[in-house]
Design brief:
single chain; alpha+beta; 3 domains; 14 helices; about 15% strand; lyase; pyruvate; decarboxylase; phosphatidylserine decarboxylase activity; zymogen
């Protein structure tokens, strides 16, 4: 079997977590080629945005970075993968096109993170690992993603906020898939009252739709996000080899902005991780009641995955343990009202196109269980809760965790803490 046939067989047999991207490689190829054709057509008539020109200047001004990116593209093509582009310049034209792209709805074949799909194979090539960990490259990529986020926060992003099938986000299929009757909207208004794509993506739940489990019981921990269970890890270390296949959690790296005395309290503790779906609620809520001790953002990578996952379209999804230590993220540490519980760290990780992890809870603020902490603005996302040692008695979701597990509702019971 040739390389291309082998690679396509491999990707069609695997699922992607969260319904962000299609599982079948032939569908991914069709999308890449469609986007590439539109991008090349626009490139002939429309100048690139400043942020993409600056990205081009960075790449072409750094010999090593340019070499690694060129080789990553060549390595992917030599392995038999169809990218839709053959050079850095063609890739930059596609990135520029996507910076003003409003994703359409698709119930059966979602493409919610299109740039992830465009970068899929160079990301997991030997040279690609180096590119997507480069600090300067990620810093400029953040500016590109911020530019796209600005577009998605404006009125021109509402192209598909309609009831028109098949791509309208308010079509009958979308309403059923996403249970839109559970969210606040004004259907008498154009675009149901949403001012932008991001306003729709960060839509609010109606009052009472997600009641807080055991609001008066401090020993009940609730889900901070509407997310499917991904992993539970116990006896986590301050420093660990988070880049290996098992991806153990390395606390000092995850909590990069926290003081040493805070991080030390989690040594030997427990981490719970869940991943969000493209079609679900993207705001974060307090898993416990207490005082916000830390609330900060950490700059990091956006498309970096771990080599141990190998050449696989699911590589970024399967690198979720690794991404907690390297990706752009928001960290909120809560000092629980119950002294025996101590600290709980909430880490909200922006994967792929997520460039905006927005924190609304402030240090010193007291939050009740279920209060809003912040939200993701667009893209693939994962989160974890970190507990001190010997605090958790049991988690509600039990392993093994399957890649088609339905999301646990936000504010529902996640775990029970030891009463002592």
């Amino acid at each position: 079997m040739d390389a291309k046939a082998s690679n396509n067989t491999q990707t069609t047999s695997k699922r992607r977590l969260g319904n962000w991207l299609p599982a079948k490689e032939e569908i991914a190829i069709a999308f890449r080629e469609e986007i590439a054709a539109a991008a090349y057509e626009r490139a002939g008539t429309t100048p690139r945005s400043l942020v993409v020109r600056q990205l081009a200047d960075l790449i072409h001004g750094d010999t090593v970075l340019r070499m690694h990116l060129s080789r990553a593209i060549a390595q992917a093509r030599d392995a038999g993968f169809t990218l839709g582009y053959t050079s850095i310049d063609e890739l930059l034209s596609i990135i520029d096109y996507l910076s003003t792209y409003a994703p359409p709805f698709n119930a059966s074949v979602p493409i919610a993170t299109p740039l992830n799909l465009v970068l899929d194979w160079p990301m997991c090539m030997p040279s690609g690992y180096l590119v997507f960990r480069d600090p300067a490259f990620n810093a400029q990529l953040r500016r590109v993603l911020d530019y796209w986020c600005g577009f998605l926060s404006g009125p021109h992003s509402r192209e598909h906020l309609t009831t028109s099938a098949p791509h309208g986000w308010f079509s009958e299929a979308a309403q059923q898939k996403m249970r839109l009757d559970e969210f606040v909207s004004d259907r008498s208004q154009p675009h149901w009252g949403f001012e932008s794509w991001n306003a729709f993506f960060t839509r609010r739940l109606r009052d009472g739709v997600r009641p807080v489990a055991a609001p008066d019981d401090p020993h009940v921990v609730v889900n901070a996000c509407e997310a499917s269970p991904y992993n539970v890890s116990e006896n986590c270390q301050l420093h660990d080899r988070f880049w290996i296949k098992a991806q153990p959690y390395s606390l000092r790296e995850i909590l990069e902005g926290s003081p040493d005395d805070v991080v030390m309290r989690f040594s030997g503790g427990t981490v719970y991780q869940g991943y969000l779906s493209a079609f679900n609620y993207h705001r974060w809520h307090a898993p416990v009641a207490g005082r916000v001790r830390e609330a900060y953002n950490v700059d990091g990578t956006f498309f970096s995955e771990v080599e141990a996952e190998g050449t696989d379209a699911r590589g970024l999804n399967d690198s979720q343990g690794y991404t907690t230590a390297v990706a752009a993220r928001a960290v909120i540490v809560i000092e629980c009202d119950t002294p025996a519980v101590g600290l709980v760290a909430c880490v909200f990780v922006g994967m792929a196109e997520v460039s905006s992890c927005r924190i609304v809870a402030l240090p010193g603020q007291h939050v009740e269980k279920g209060d809003e902490l912040g939200f993701f603005q667009y893209g693939g996302s994962t989160y974890c809760l970190i507990f001190e040692p010997d605090v958790i008695e049991q988690f509600e979701p039990k392993p093994p965790y399957h890649d088609d597990s339905p999301p646990l509702k936000v504010n529902s019971r996640l775990a029970t803490m030891r009463s002592g």
